[in-house]
Amino acid sequence: MKIRLPWLALLLALFMESGLAQFMRPPAFAGGIPGRAQSQAIFMQRHQARTLLYLEALEELRKNPAAADLPVCGAGVAGACLTPATLSPAEPPPIKKSAEVAVPPAPTLAVAPTPEAPPPVATTKTARPVGRRIALLVGNNDYAQPIPALDTPIADVSKVASILETRFGFKTQVVKNATQAKTIEALNKLAAEISPDDSVLLFYAGHGYLMDDIQMGFWIPVGASVKTAKGWISNSDISKLLSAIQARQLILISDSCFSGSLTKEQKFTDKQIGQTEDILQRRSVVVLSSGGDEPVSDEGKDGHSIFAWNLIKTLEATGSITPGVKVWHTVHGDVMKDFPQEPQYGAVVSAGHVSGGDFLFQPR
Question: pTM for the full model?
Answer without folding.
Answer: 0.79
